Structure formats: C-alpha cells, structure tokens
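ok so for the tutorial part 2 we go from a plain amino acid sequence to predicted structure tokens. step 1 is just haveing the sequence, like this:
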Amino acid sequence: MSKTRKALLWMAGLSLVSLLLGLLREFWIARELRASGEADLFFRGLVVVGAARGFGLALFRARWIPVPAQAPARMLLRAEAGTCVVVTGIALVALVLIAGAGTLTDPTLWVFAAAVMLSTIGSAVRALAERAGKERRGFVLEWALPIGAITGALTLPHGALGPALGILVGLVIGFVGLLPVVFSDMPRGTLPAGHVAEVVDRGRTRVLLFDALVYTNLGLLEGALSHVFATGGFALLNYAYLFVNAALMVPSAAATVVGLRASASGDPGAHATMRRWSVVAGLVCAGLVIAVGLLLGWAPVATRVDAAVGWPMAAGIGAVVLWSAPYAGLRLANTIGRQFVIATEPRRVVVWDLIGLVGRALLLLFAMQWLGLLASPIGLAFAESVQLLAWWRRPQPRPATA
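step 2 — the prediction. this is what the tokens look like for a chain of 402 residues:
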C-alpha cells in the first residue's frame, strides 16, 4: 500500500472518531441548552474558536506542507509568529462583535477569548505535526475538544460556561500533546537557498490568510448576522449543520492533506485527477446529506432523535439539512480541487472569494425574511458554486525560485 493511501486511510479513520465525538458533543449541548439564548452564546463563541483553528489549519497547511523537508519546524513557526498574532487579534475582535457588547460581563465570553488565543497556535502546531507525517498525533487536539465540552456540560449544566470551560481545557491538553513535534523536529539536511524566500514569503501568507478568512471559515458570516434570527435560531441552524458536517468531516480531513501533497508532487496529471475525483466525491456527499435529511423527516427516526435530545428538534432542522445537499457536495468537490490552486497560484482565488462572500451575504440578508433559516444553506451553495471557477481550469505552474 502506498504512503499516500495509508495516510488517507488513517486520516479517514481518525476523522470518523472525531466525528462521533463531535456528534455526541452537539447532542449533549442540545439536551442541556436546547434552542435558547445560552445556546446561541455558546455557538457564537464556538464559531469563532473554530474559525481561529480553521484560519491556522488552512493557512499553515498550505504554507508549510509544500516547503522542502529540510526546513525545521521551529524555523517555520518563527517565520509565521506574526501571522499567529494577527489571526488571534482578528478572532478576538470577531468574538466581541459576534457575541455582542452586552456579553462583556459574562465569564463565558472571557473563557472563549482564552480559547481563541490557544486555538491559533494550536492549529499551527497541528499543521507542523501533519507536515512531519504525524497526522495521528494531531487528533489529540480534535478529540480533546468534544470530550472537554461534554465534561464541562456535565460539571456545570444548563449554561454555556461549563462547555466553554471544557473546550478551553481540551485546547490546553491538545496543545501540550503536540508541542513535542516542534521541539523534537530536527533539520533533515540543509534548506536550499532558493527556498528560503518561500518559507518567509509574506505576500503569499497574506493571500492565504485572506482566503482562510473569507472562504474557509464559512460560519463567521452566519455568526455575525445571527442576531437577526429569533432567540435560539442560530443554535437551531448549528444543530442542522451538525448532520451536514457528519457527511463532510471524514472525507474533508483526508482530502485536504492528501490533495496538498498531490499538488506539491509536481505530477502534471495531478490537477486532472483531482478534478475527476472531486466530481465523484461531491455527488456522493450530496447524496449522503439528502439521505440524512429524508431520514430526519421520517417519523420513526425523528421520534428517536427528539427523544435523545429531550425536545422536538428534528422538525426544525430537517428542511435545512435537505437544502444543504448542494452546498455539501460542492464543498467537498472544492476541498479536493482547490488544493492545486492553493499550492501553486493562491492569488488566483481572491476574486472568487470576494464574489462568493458578497453574493452569500446579500442572499442571507435579503432572503432571510422569506426563507428563514433556509437562506443560510442557499447562500453557502452559491459561494461554493462560485469557487468552482477558481480551480476548474488548470492554473499555470509557479516559476522556479532562483
């Protein structure tokens, strides 16, 4: 079995465990907080923490995986220390804006602020673990977060503070577990002089940071506009996306890393191969989401879901899940296909990022009064369909660095 195939299988298997833990976390939050103001606050904080982690993973994977193996992890981390500070600052501002100034006296907000600061550096260390071929160790962080949230909800029930504290503790455990990757990493030879500029290419970093902000962290826009929903509406939307992410999470984690490695391989046929697989994967993922949405509308399943959470949740999220099928299929297709552009010509995606964001925001604002929560998956599908134009045509390879 090839090294790439083994990595794919390991990533898929470990992501499945992460998915199951995430499902358990969301069900437990649904049982404890239901569709309430406390649930809205928890998910607003969780969206920002997830965005900070998503910033780091998307940015540092794309920046570091293609860099020659001779570059030590500590050198890469030092080169992007300023980026970590910028991402953390943006995330903290976003946390206050999304949660609302009225929550500044709520201890839950300050717990999430600490979690945001750990999230960025934790994502950088995880990206370094994946670059070193230690993807399995990176899942220490993935598993610590839902386990911490569940433990916190059990310890301090009926509020957002308990699960928020649990997430913070999980981040600490995951970060400490990944630190040895940085401190034990030794240079594997001498970094060629022509590649030093690639390690510290600030312009490339800024483009990737912009892409991570606008495209990768899709939950930020909903979080920023969540106050226009009725109380509990944002939580209900997150419960619906729980089932959508169930279809997306396992293949997406493997597709991102393996796709980047294929892009960095220099194989002239890599783009055509990823384009074929993106079509197949997108159709399969959309079909899975449709199946889940139909199951949630089937009385025997809906009854069991509602019994598990203790309130009638299935009826409120079934339609949102069904309407999310186009988004899910396009998202997975882009997860596979965009890696070639991100690794070779990242500036090419900027214009499509902006078109997708503006169109999605307009749909969300103006269609919400007629479509309610359904405006969110429709807006997401629009943004993903625009992203197809960013990578479907094969980009030109980068000129060799002198």
